[in-house]
Amino acid sequence: MKAMILAAGLGKRMRPLTDHCPKPLLPVAGKPLIVHHLARLRQAGIHEVVINVSYRAEQIIAALGDGDAYGLHIHWSRETEPLETGGGIQQALPMLGEAPFLLINGDVWCAALPAQHALQGDDLAHLMLVENPFHHASGDFGLAGRRVNQTSTQRLTYSGISVIHPEVLAGQPQGAFALAPLLRTAIDNNRVSGEHYKGHWVDVGTPERLAALERQLQVDRG
Questions:
Q1: Phi and psi at residue 104, to the nearest 5°
Q2: CATH, range 2-220
């Protein structure tokens, strides 16, 4: 299985930290945020990674190179204009191929990847869901067994980590579009599985959350 890391965002919420450094390269526990993802991917046995870049793309490419230092092979998908999540994935599909792939938001930190890599039956996606953080108390989706729904009153938050089948994007025109509406359609068609991850996960969306993560990891290291 291949993986894709979404790293093309402007990092507006992280300013002023991202005024001169792209968000994926912000340090956490002594190494760039995105390098934690690369380490998890290698541990999971994934060796090919596609990373989309736009804002300060050259800095990210210079920092990570071809991925050899991390035991991976990195393919770069450069975006000359904002393509949003769906459009960014669509542009990268020639590098990802026709099989399901692991998708990771570049601005989250997580101690693990989904336990289930293979999609079941005619499923189009598998979502890793987490407890609702304080800044997103209403959550995103319900989970009944291993099926994701939009009807449960008790909801969990999408972690930004999932397994995606390229068919999710079938029929979409070239250009910018969001992935979320396509996932919601697949959920309504009962074609999305999920799991409730209860380990350490953080949406590193603001300088304050980044600082809190750094403090927690220092405590964990003892």
A1: -135, 130
A2: 3.90.550.10
Q: What is the DSSP string of 97-165?
A: -SS-EEEEETTEEES---S--SPPTT--EEEEEEPPPGGGTT-SBEEETTEEES--SS-BEEEEEEEE-
Joined tokens for residue 196 = 């409730």
Domain spans, the chain: 2-220
Strand partners, 103: 4, 162
Report the alpha-carbon angle 63-69-75, nearest 5.
65
Which residues sit opposite 128 in a β-bridge?
A: 195
Q: Which of 51, 47, 70, 68 is nearest to 1 (CA)?
A: 47
**Which tens digits make up the pLDDT trace of 165-209?**
999 999 998 899 999 999 999 999 999 999 999 999 999 988 999
CA triple 122-125-129, angle to 5 deg: 135
